[in-house]
Amino acid sequence: MSTAVEAHCETARDSPYSRDRQEAIEELRRLYPDVSTDEQRRILETLREVASNATATDERSLARQSIREAFDIAPAVGASIVVPLFCEQARNASHSDDRLDAIDSLRELYGSVDESERDEIEATLAEVASEATFEDERRRARQRLSDVQAETERSASDESDEDSATDSSMGYLGQSLAEHLSAAADDSPEACRQRAEELRDFVVENPVDDESYDDVVEGIESLTEQLSVLRGDDLDTERVDRVRRVANRVERLYSR
User: Fold this and answer.
1) CB 61 within 8 A of CB 94
2) Is the pLDDT of residue 1 over 80?
3) Based on C-alpha coordinates, what's the Rg of the chain?
4) Residue range 163-180, pLDDT digits in tens
5) What is the mean pLDDT of residues 61-82?
6) Residues 6+ apart with CB under 8 A from 92
7) What are phi and psi of 113, to 5 degrees?
8) Could you tell me the CA-to-CA distances from 9 to 21, 38, 115, 253 in Å, in that order?
9) Could you tell me which residues come within 8 angstroms of residue 214 by beta carbon, excluding any fewer than 6 positions away?
10) 3-class SS at 1?
11) pLDDT per residue over 189-216, tens digit each?
C-alpha cells in the first residue's frame, strides 16, 4: 500500500483537527481512481468508518459523497462495502438526515449491483418503510422501494424471477405496515391515523389481483376518514376492534 494512501487514511480517521480530516478525505477521493484494487478497498473502508462514526456532520456528508463517487468509478470493487454501509445507515444512523441520505443512496446504487445486493437493498427499504420511527423516513423508503420495483419491471431479463423477488418485498411491506397499524390501536388516535394513512397509501399504490382487494381498499379508506376526526388520548374498544379487523384483512391480502 502506498505511503500516501496510508497517511491520508490515518489522518481522515484520527486527526484531532477537522480541517485536516476533511482535507484527507478529499485527497483519498482524488487518489482513488489511480491506485490498486487493494488500496481502493482500504480507502473505501476508511471512508465507511468516517461516514459511520465521525462526530462532525460535514465530515460524514463528505465521506458519503466520496463513497458514492468511488462506487461509480469501480462498482465491482465497492459493492461489498458500500451496499452494507448504506443499508446499515438507513436503519441505524444516529441522525435522521444521514438515514434519509442513505435511503436515497440505496436507490441510486440499485441499478449497478448484482441480484443478491439488490435483494439486500429491497429488504432494507421494506424494513425501514415499516419500522422507522419517523414518518418522513418511512415515506421516503416506500418511495424508493417503489422506484426500484419500477426499475426491476423495466429492465428484468427474466421476468418470472425478478417479479417473484419484487412481490416478496412488497408482500413483506404490506404485512408489516398492517401489523404496525394493529399495534397503533393501543396508541393515540393521531398515531393510529398516521399508520392508517400509510397503509391506505400503500394498498392503493400496490393493487393485488384478488377479489377482496376493492373491499379492503374501501375499508382502510373509511377507517382513515373516521380516525381523522377523532380526538382524545385513546381509542374506545369498538374502534380498536375495527382497526385490528382492517389491519388483519390487509395482512391476509398481502400474505397470499
Assistant:
1) no
2) no
3) 22
4) 444 466 778 888 889 998
5) 93
6) none
7) -120, 170
8) 9, 13, 31, 51
9) none
10) coil
11) 888 999 999 999 999 988 888 889 999 9
Query: How far is it, in rounded angstroms, from Cα 52 to Cα 60?
Result: 7
**pLDDT score for 160:** 47
Sequence-distant (≥ 6) Cβ neighbours of residue 186 within 8 angstroms? 240
Q: Provide the H-helix boundaries in the chain.
A: 3-14, 18-31, 37-53, 57-73, 75-92, 96-110, 115-131, 135-155, 159-184, 189-205, 213-228, 237-255
Give residues with Cβ within 8 angstroms of 128, minimum separation 6: 90, 91, 99, 103, 137, 138, 141
Q: Provide the residue count of the chain.
A: 256
What would the DSSP string read from start to end of 122-190? HHHHHHHHHH-SSHHHHHHHHHHHHHHHHHHHHH-SSHHHHHHHHHHHHHHHHHHHHHHHHHHTTS-HH
Amino acid making up residue 183: A
The answer for 132, left when phi > 0, alpha when psi is -120 to 50, beta otherwise, is: beta
CA-to-CA dists, residue 62 to 12, 13, 129, angstroms? 11, 13, 26
C-alpha cell belonging to residue 172 = 413483506
Grid cell listed for 225: 376518514
Kindly state the cell numbers that stand for 103.
Answer: 435511503
The SS3 call for residue 224 is helix
